[in-house]
Amino acid sequence: MNFVTPDFMLAMPEIFLLSMICIIMIIDLFLKDESRGATYVLSLISLIATAFLAFSNYTDQSLSTFNGSFILDPMASLLKISICIIVIGVFIYAKDYLKDRNIYKGEYFTLGLFGVLGMMVMVSAGNFLTVYLGLELLSLSMYAMIAMQRDSIMASEAAMKYFILGAIASGMLLYGMSMVYGVTGSLDLATINKAVSSADRVVMSFGLVFIILGVAFKLGAVPFHMWMPDVYHGSPTSVTLYIASAPKIAAFAMMYRLLAEGLADMHADWQMILVILSVLSMVFGNIIAIAQTNIKRMLAYSTISHVGFIIMGFVAGTQAGYGASMFYAIVYTIMSVAAFGMIVLLSRAGFEAENIEDFKGLNHKSPWFAFVMMAIMFSMAGVPPFLGFWAKIAVLQEAVNSGLLWLAIVGVVASVIGAFYYLRVIKVVYFDKPMDETPLQASMDIRLTLSLNGLAILAIGLYPTALITLCVSTFA
Amino acid sequence: METILFYFFSAFMVLSALMVITVHNPVRAAFFLVLTFFASAAVWLLLEAEFLAVILIIVYVGAVMVLFLFVVMMLDINITELKAGFVKNLPIAIAVALAMFGTIYYVVGGDQFGVEHFATPDRHAADYSNIAALGKLLYTEYVFAFEIAAVILLVGIVAAISLTLRRRPNTRHQKIEDQIAVKSEDRLRVVEMAPHARKGERK
Q1: Reported pTM
Q2: Do A69 and B145 touch (CB under 8 A)?
């Protein structure tokens, strides 16, 4: 065996982030509770620097190092930058929420950063082993983040459910991987892809089903969605923010690496399974969401339906399809982080704005944030000119182009159904009388970030071509 | 000889694995799991994977299972409660289990993974070192995965500590350093008092 020294420069963002996490952990150890802000600022700085390193690392070819287990391609760079930016938003929203509930600990930020590292590993994975390890790194951090609110029974229950179901899903994923390894004799995705045609069909399909099962669980597609409403609802909103946003980008990347790079030749086999997942997610997600009165649960079901759309773009199996799907994933995280940001904005010490009722009369309290909420909801429903509309259009177009007209029609019908509960929130915000007269108490940085976030939904929605072209070009 | 040993340990493994899921007492089930690990370690030895065999015994039997037993004994699980819906759900459970078994047998049975599909591994020389070969592979080809695994362990440590560490400022505890540094003046105060006695008391 000849050993080639790995090119560490390609993995610079990851290496930098890991070193920063270790430094932050040690600094945090010596901080008093009053000066916890230093951990927060340092975490933000390291995320910004990581995003910058990922940006400066950009290449338009696909490079691999560490014996093929690490891949750097345009998709990896773009997704890493988006993950870092989204998590910066998450941390800013979460800070005051954590403070008000006495869970303002350094571990929230260090575990959050570990999760980012896990996502980056998944995004750049070139091998079954790195996909799995990145996934576990991310999941483990998330389980611990949920359970950190120890006095809350809901949070412990959510953590427990997520942990057990997540462990089963990881087991399934590993089982599928071991099957594929058994017949192709390799863990390397590129090698597997070459070996698919000569490998045994039965075992490969068997492994494929289990791999898709693991991916679908992590994405939260129906029928593997059971954990999402409970986990979204039970976790502290600061953690729901995190779980509901960036990990979906990583799950998309995992799906791309496993199915489109590792098992591309089995496209016909996985296409049908994904179509079913997509239809079920879109229909069930949107219908069940109507019945929810808790906004966190409603957003969980809305996420399930968005996952259906992300999968729909993927089904086509073309470069343009992957681009549309990735665009949808990024757009979804921007909207989702803003929606949960709104919940944080309305909550205050001792009060959770968890129910849709709590949004009543937001227009009286703050017309500007009522507008932001409207932008988020319209965008999620897919109303032009907001960002979500372009994402839906891009995905539907790819479904039509690949000859799955009926799938596109199901998608359109499902989003019409979904429009009902998004519009209901807007109605509550604008036309209902407020429940109480307490003014908004959120601090300036949350207001500013949320305003920027809302404006981004509108602004990118008005000029969407740049982001769409960027997403599609990464796969070209 | 080797074939006999293989069949002996394999049968051992299968039987004890069966016992794990059939015995009533969870503590016994854990012990049978230990036995399963021993048998599979022996099978690994036959495959000349000495290091893995030793690690399996040290890590799984020595650490994981002991911890597991500890938890099982501490929890005091009510078995009758667990068995509540056993008979009612048995038909469905059997149907699902048979379907799963059938599928898995069809896929991984002799057709695809039979012995005849794989060449017998070569015998290693007497001075072949299992650990060196593994180490070489881990630190070269799989170094990235190896490092990520290390980070996962670090997350495990951070998570475990942050979830269990409770600072209780109100608890009473000894301050050893203060106790050692104490001087007699801190503890004993000699007070000068005028001698006096009450009526009727003895002098």
Answers
A1: 0.90
A2: yes
HSE, side-chain direction, 13 A CA sphere, residue A219: 34
- As a whole number, mean pLDDT of residues A417-445 equals 88
| Residues in chain B closer than 8 A to A141 (CB atoms) | 155, 159
Q: Is the pLDDT of residue A242 over 90?
A: yes
**Are residues A137 and B112, on separate chains, in Cβ contact within 8 Å?**
no
Name the minimum distance, in Å, from the CA of B103 to any CA of chain A.
Answer: 9
Q: What pLDDT is stored for residue B190 in this prediction?
A: 82
Domains of chain B, start order: 1-80 (1.20.120.1200)
Alpha-helical regions (H) of A126-200: 128-147, 153-184, 189-195
To the nearest whole Å, the CA of A148 is away from the closest chain B CA by: 6
ipTM of this predicted complex?
A: 0.92
Candidates A3, A121, A140; nearest CB to B159: A140
- 3-state SS record for A324-376: HHHHHHHHHHHHHHHHHHHHHHHCECCECCCEHHHHCCHHHHCHHHHHHHHHH
Q: Sorting pLDDT into bands at 50, 70 and 90, what band is A380?
A: very high
Element (H, E) at A121: helix A106-123
Partner residue opposite A111 with nearest CB, options B107, B144, B159? B159
The answer, for A195 touching chain B at a CB cutoff of 8 Å, is no
3-class secondary structure, A48 = helix
Tell whether the model's pLDDT for residue B199 goes beyond 70.
Answer: no
| Residue in B140, B154, B162 closest to A148 by CB | B162
Instruction: Specify the 3-state DSSP secondary structure of A231.
Output: helix
When mean pLDDT is compared across A59-68, A69-78, A401-410, B181-190, the lowest value belongs to: B181-190
